[in-house]
Automatic annotation (TrEMBL):
GO terms for molecular function: ATP binding; glycerol kinase activity. The gene is glpK_2. InterPro entries: ATPase_NBD, Carb_kinase_FGGY, Carb_kinase_FGGY_CS, FGGY_C, FGGY_N, Glycerol_kin. Key enzyme in the regulation of glycerol uptake and metabolism. Catalyzes the phosphorylation of glycerol to yield sn-glycerol 3-phosphate. This is Glycerol kinase. ATP binds at residues 12-14, 271, 315, 319, 416.
Length: 505
């Protein structure tokens, strides 16, 4: 009897493999970072081969740490950085180009052109997304137009596309020796190419980007008893294990936070922030700058949809303090430094390094630090960075309330920055509602494990998953309403200072 479920969590800065027991408790993990390739301003790339090699290494090491073999795993799920685009040769397994990361802004002209001639409105209606550099469709088009030989290879059926879930699934199920070219509905819904109503690739949308349909993976449910394939004996798991779960990282975190009822929401704090509100089986069209996306689809059940607020730069702003400004030596020092001052001293930092995502969708914006005086120190900048994370979340929470009519009673949070107690207290203060962190903060991997385990009967139903959720800590708001609104009003003024900085044709 297999007692555990595994999950590959392929993120923006690292890849990890985690193993969970039936209670949703972590048994083992291993994690490795990969290189962030920055060829020029606005360009962000990863090496797909390095990501695959890191995946193999973390799986093998975690299994060794736990002294487990493939037969101990009932199933494996995969979750991944969404929108990050890989195009590779199905005959050789070699990528034609580096992975173009979701943060990359090189496709701004493609996105702007879509909006100028009305195609953008079709994309919003069919795919639930605004034309933006964020999503995969423009990245595929850029590779087809700018990398020699890829267009011809795509027409032949040799060049194939996937977000990083598809790249890993293809490799882990055999690669050039017959790997499965598949994805799930949540990842497909992040491409600008899938119709939210049919859950299939849409020929009209494909024509907007001039993408051959044969490049695209088969779309499957997020939790699929028919499997995405079998991890082969000579693969990283060292044996045959069914791959039965696949979810984009933010949808996986929503499942890991057991947000299975309409109106339940979670916010994940990672490289960026991503807040999802479960809207049930109803497609809710946003009028306030949010995305309509697939939340999950379990087996043959109807798809569940979500409203999403995607914020490009939150945790990566803390990394910027560490790596570029060098005012801290590690991410956890941001809390210590920021705690040296009672407030930001009038400083506001809008980290629009990749433009502004929800609810603004302004690719012309760039980062700005405003309100500086000679009084201010590095501690004020550190605190303004934490406040920026929280104010951007407030932007999204307000938009969700306008779209859905749902007012949050509590915000469920997860991800790396939630270990920063000061940041979470500021979040409660900025929102005016309690903030709750679960015992298992790595809900992205847990959600992928849940999807995989549900497919094979390791967990019977979502009620059983709810029983696994336990609160670790709760932060109560302490600011007055006047303090909250004054701070947010100044944040909105700071946001205005970032706009119209880059000329977009």
């Amino acid at each position: 009897m297999a007692d555990f479920v595994g999950a590959v969590d392929q993120g923006t800065t690292s890849t990890r493999f985690m193993i969970f027991d039936h209670g949703g408790n972590e048994v083992a993990r291993h994690q490795l970072e990969h290189e962030q390739i920055l060829p020029q301003a606005g360009w962000v790339e990863h090496n797909p081969i390095e990501i695959w090699e890191r995946t193999v290494a973390v799986v093998r090491t975690a299994m060794q740490k736990a002294n487990l073999s493939a037969s101990d795993l009932a199933a494996v799920g995969i979750t991944n950085q969404r929108e990050t685009t890989v195009v590779w040769d199905r005959r050789t397994g070699r990528p034609y180009y580096n992975a173009i990361v979701w943060q990359d802004t090189r496709t701004d002209r493609i996105a702007s052109a879509l909006d100028r001639d009305g195609r953008g409105d079709v994309i919003r209606r069919k795919a639930g997304l605004p034309p933006a550099t964020y999503f995969s469709g423009g990245k595929i088009q850029w590779i087809l137009e700018n990398v020699d030989g890829v267009r011809e290879a795509a027409e032949r059926g040799d060049a194939i596309f996937g977000n990083t879930d598809s790249w890993l699934l293809w490799n882990i199920t055999g690669g050039a020796k017959g790997g499965n070219h598949v994805t799930d509905v949540t990842n497909a819904s992040r491409t600008m190419l899938m119709n939210l109503e049919t859950l299939d690739w849409d020929d009209e949308l494909l024509s907007f980007f001039n993408i051959p349909r044969r490049m695209l993976p088969e779309i499957r449910p997020s939790s699929d008893p028919n499997t995405y394939g079998i991890a082969h004996v000579d693969g990283p798991l060292g044996g045959d294990v069914p791959l039965t779960g696949d979810l984009g990282d933010q949808q996986a975190a929503t499942v890991g936070q057991v947000c299975f009822a309409p109106g339940e929401a979670k916010n994940t704090y990672g490289t960026g922030n991503f807040m999802l509100l479960n809207t049930g089986t109803n497609l809710v069209r946003s009028e306030n700058g949010l995305l309509t996306t697939v939340c999950y689809k379990f087996g043959d059940a109807a798809p569940v949809y979500a409203l999403e607020g995607s914020i490009a730069v939150t945790g990566s702003a803390v990394q910027w303090l560490r790596d570029q400004l060098k005012i801290i030596k590690s991410a956890d020092q941001s809390e210590t430094l920021a705690a040296q001052v009672p407030d930001s001293g009038g400083v506001y930092f809008v980290p629009a390094f990749s433009g502004l995502f929800a609810p603004y969708w302004r690719s012309d914006a760039r980062g700005a630090i405003v309100g500086l005086s000679r009084f201010n120190t590095d501690a004020h900048i550190a605190r303004a960075t934490l406040e920026a994370i929280c104010y951007q979340t407030r932007d999204v929470v307000d938009a969700m309330a306008q779209d859905s009519g749902v007012t949050l009673d509590v915000l469920k949070v997860d991800g790396g920055i939630t270990v920063n107690n000061l940041a979470m207290q500021i979040q409660a203060d900025v929102l005016g509602v309690p903030v709750s962190r679960p015992v298992v903060a790595e809900t992205t991997a847990l959600g992928a494990a849940y999807a995989a385990g549900l497919a094979v009967g390791f967990w019977k139903n979502t009620d059983e998953l709810r029983e696994n959720w336990n609160e670790s800590q709760r932060w109560q708001p302490s600011w007055s309403q006047d303090q909250r609104e004054q701070g947010y009003g100044r944040w909105k003024k700071a946001v205005q200072r970032t706009l119209d900085w880059v000329d977009v044709d």
